[in-house]
Design a protein that fits this description.
The protein has about 190 residues and is mainly beta. Helices cover about 5% and strands about 30% of the residues. The protein has helices spanning about 15, 40-45; strands at about 5, 10-15, 55-60, 70, 75-80, 85, 100-105, 110-115, 120-125, 125-130, 135, 140-145, 145-150, 160, 165.
């Protein structure tokens, strides 16, 4: 397992997380760019398609409050161990092994949460999770003393294969509410 280390001295699995630290989000600068060709730089820094972010988990309660965890296509193991895709450090109640699994299906843009193989409980929107459940935007996931909110990035409006899929997403000039910056009474609503 090749270990990466960010400038904050966090160590992580480079096979799983590429050059981006899963703890603080910094890109590893351990490799020198000087004298490298474009192909060599791409090999070092370009993310593989299975590492593209499809959503994020945002910690809103617990020791990691404010921290972001990217969600990738496929299975994302959640726990505190080094092999976890979402590694929650500092919470003694989060198990080393997969306490939960968040699966993102790239084809359907659906996200599902499943209980993991660890002994610790997982709660989805304040209810114990015993079987797989679909995740919707702002779903609250609790493990130990940590509470995470799920925010999808890929959806019917955007995916990595097609880019922006709704050409009318913002309309021309990004007008608010389909108007020209005015509400129904003619007042500006900026």
């Amino acid at each position: 397992m090749p270990l990466g280390e960010c400038e904050n001295r966090h160590r992580y699995n480079r096979n799983t997380h590429g050059d981006t630290c899963p703890i603080c989000g910094l890109v590893s600068r351990k490799y020198k760019d000087e004298g490298k060709t474009l192909e060599e730089l791409k090999a070092l820094y370009e993310l593989k398609e299975n590492q593209y972010a499809c959503g994020i988990l945002v910690c809103v309660e617990g020791i990691n409050k404010g921290r972001l965890y990217p969600i990738h296509p496929g299975k994302n193991l959640i726990g505190s161990g080094d092999r976890m895709d979402v590694q929650i450090l500092g919470d003694p109640e989060v198990d080393l092994y997969a306490q939960a699994v968040l699966v993102f299906d790239n084809r359907t843009q659906d996200a599902m949460l499943l209980p993991g193989e660890a002994r610790g409980m997982v709660y989805l929107n304040d209810k114990a999770l015993y079987e797989r459940k679909q995740l919707f935007p702002y779903a609250a996931i609790e493990l130990g003393q940590t509470k995470l909110l799920f925010l999808p990035f890929c959806s019917e409006n955007f995916n990595w294969q097609e880019g922006v899929t709704k050409s009318d997403l913002y309309g021309e000039g990004a007008a608010i509410n389909g108007s020209n910056g005015e509400d129904e009474h003619g007042d500006e609503n900026y």
